[in-house]
Amino acid sequence: MNRTPVTGVVVQMRIDSSRLPGKALLPLAGTTLAGAVLRRLRRIRADAFVLATDAVGADALGPVAEAFGFSVFAGPKDDVLARYVLAAAAFGLDRVVRATGDNPFVSVPLAELALDESDASGADYVGLVDMPVGMGVEVVRVSALVRAFNSTTSAFDREHVCPYLYGHPDEFRVQRPACPDSYHNPRARVTIDTRSDYDRALSIFAALGDEPSDDAILSWLRDERKDG
Question: Structure pTM?
Answer without folding.
Answer: 0.95
